[in-house]
Structures are given as structure tokens and as C-alpha cells.
Amino acid sequence: MHSHQRASRDNGLPEEIAHALEHDPAFRVHTMDATGWIDPYTAQVVPTPFGMQEVAKTHLIRTRPWLKLQAKPLKELLYVRWLNYLRDNIEFVPALRVFRNGLWLNPYNGQWVSGIQLDNHQVTKRVADDLAKILAACPEAQTGRMLEKWQIETLTAQGPARSAAPEVQEMVRASGRVARAKTDFHSIRQGFLKMLHRPPRMQGHQLVVHFEPHAQISRDFYDFIDLGGGKLLLVVGDFTGIGPGAALMAGTALQVLRKIAPGHKDLVELLSNLNDELRIDLLHGCSIAIFAILLDTATNRLSCLSAGHQPALLVRPRRDNTLTRIRTPGASLGALTGPDFRKTLVPLNLQLEPGDILLIHSNGLAHAANAHDPDAGRWSVMGQCVANIKRPCAELVARVVEETKRSSDKLPDDITVLALRIKDESWLLESKE
Length: 433
Description:
Blueprint: H1 15-23, E1 36-38, E2 45-47, H2 53-63, H3 74-89, E3 98-100, E4 103-105, E5 112-114, H4 125-136, H5 149-158, E6 169-171, H6 177-195, E7 205-212, E8 220-228, E9 231-240, H7 249-260, H8 267-279, E10 287-296, E11 301-307, E12 312-315, E13 323-326, H9 338-344, E14 348-351, E15 357-361, H10 363-369, H11 374-387, H12 393-405, E16 415-422, H13 425-432
Antiparallel strand pairs: 1-2, 3-4, 3-6, 4-5, 7-16, 8-9, 9-10, 10-11, 11-14, 12-13, 12-15, 15-16
């Protein structure tokens, strides 16, 4: 081993490489669906369906590529990333196949690019190679976020401004893989839905969930995890990010959370470790907002943390202060690293009483109430909670969602609502009279 590459004490990697895995973008290039890591020495795609860091370390220690090879530059690795994505997806993503008069419309920045020639009106491997080089050098493309559909349609209709040739649009036809692709997305969606648990039945407590996905693959998730000793973890997550692979992160977050949660009884430690596990795998510009609750089912005392998530609502029909917004400081997962992220987390302790309802909802509910002003949408949700405060918990949730959606022609985002009620049968009977 070269003298300047000392072995790290904890994992057998040279210290420089261990550091690069944490901080060098060239060592953290993922496939666009976020299920693979690209080896910076060989450009080999290494499957990482449940997180990159440990898999990458194990792979590098086993193969030791630094002994014979130099790490490739970031631009070359991004080219590999895009080439793999285009070869697998260009046939069934229409926005990638807009050609006109020898120009190609880049759907990530709206520019018409010259020098791209189709082969007999078909996208061949050569064409995909040319497009991969363009996208690897395009800053806007690295987020995986395409322009809005209406923007692409407008640009397509207008055509390239400098084109003097007759307007003959070529939308390259996809093959029969379209049907297979739709089936694949359907399978992914069904697999994710199967991961979501039904609310557990509990003595003295009621849990209600309303989950209404808008996207083909949901970016919202929720979970209930029994930590033993009368401790129950409740989580609602809202993934922010658009583009290939972004939607798959909700399932990954659930898997990682379920893996590490049983070893924790402290929310700060749990979310800090979850951030460490997920941060490396998040695409640029993506983050996860989480509201987490750790409930002591024997005493009804809870600790809660909001990591970039909007406030929860505490509904108390038997109190003068019938509605309270529950918020805590905290950055979204993926926004900061290690100690910096931990410092932002300040948990809040609450004592719940019989009849109390704690309601957590994702941004989608506020957006459904007012797509142009989410703050106004949140106030609308609060108003619906007060208007339905005497209804049973499940009915309250259903009415809040139903009334909120009345102001929206279509859902702009996934909607998730999780409600926890401390049972008080005498109050329920009283409220019905």
C-alpha cells in the first residue's frame, strides 16, 4: 500500500478513501433510481437497495481497486450514470424523446441541443451515448427534476427558435417495453403499499390513518413500531424531491427505520442515526421531513420531534385551549451531517389526557386546501379540526380530509393523516347526545 494511503483503523480502507466516501461527490454517485452505487474506480454498478455506505465500504475492501486504478473524474461517472438510465428508460419516458429538425429538447433545462441525429428515426445506443454526455454536463439534470409537463409541451409546440426548417416533429415511438415499464411501476407501488402497516389495536388508545397517494409511487410514508416495554414509535414522513429514484426513497426510509428503531429509546439518537444512514443515499436537492412520536402507553406521556415537518395538531375537546399547534426545531433529514443535524433537534414532552387527539398530517393536506398558499391551507385544516371536534376520531379525520379536498379540483400531492386518541368512553357518549 502506498505510504500516503494509510489504512483506516475502523474499516480497513485507506483513510483518504474512507474520507472520500463521506465527502467526495465522485465517490457518491448513484444510479438514477437510487438502487445502485457506481464504483469510482471501475464504473461498475454495485446494487445498494438498502443504503450505500456499508455496501460501498465492503465492496472496496474486497476488491481493493485503488491498488491498480485511479479514481475516475466526476464527469465520467455522471456519464455512466446517465447512460445506464437512458438505456433502461428512454423508451418509455416521452419527455426524453422530443426531437425536431436535428435538435433535441433537453427536458431538464428546456434548451434545444444540436448535433443529435437519430438513426432511421430510432434512438439507438449511439444516440443514447450522445444524450448521456449532454446530461452529464447539465447542472439542472443532476437533480433528476424535469420541467413541468406543461412547460415541456409548450416548448415542444413552439419548437426551436432558430430553426428555419419545416416544423417536422419526431416523437420517437416507444416499443412494447412501455407496457412492461408500467407493470414495473405498478409492482413497485404495490410492494410499497404492502410495506405500510395497519394501525395496531391498543387498550386505551385509538390510532387512525388516512393514506391517499397522488403520485404513481408515494413520497409519503408512515409507521407504527413497537419498541417493547410499553413504548410505541409513531412516524409520518414526507419526501421532498422530484425525478428518477426519488419516489423509491420512501420505501428505503421505511426499511432503514424498521431496521434501526428497535435499538433506540431516544428520539434524538434515533433520528440522528436515521439521518446518517439515509443522507448518503439521497439525491441532490432531496430531503425527508419527519414527525416522530415516542409514546409511553402506560402513562400517556410522549416525546415528539419534528425534523423539518410541519406542526402536529393537538385537539382537546375537554379543554379551553381546544387546539394547539405542536412544533419543535429540527432540520429535515439529509439537509445536514452528523453533529450539525443533531444540534437542530429539540424534543418536546407532552402529557396527554383522556379525550385528547394528536393529529399529524403531511404537506399534501395543506396543499389540497390551498395549492397556492400552503400556510393558508394549514389554517384551513385547523378550522376543519375545530368544526368537527365533537365527532369520533375516525369520523373527524375523514371529515377533515373530505372538507379540505373540496377546495381542490385534483390532488397536488400525497395526503397522509395519522391521529392518536386517548380513549375516554364517557366523553364519547356525552358528545353524541
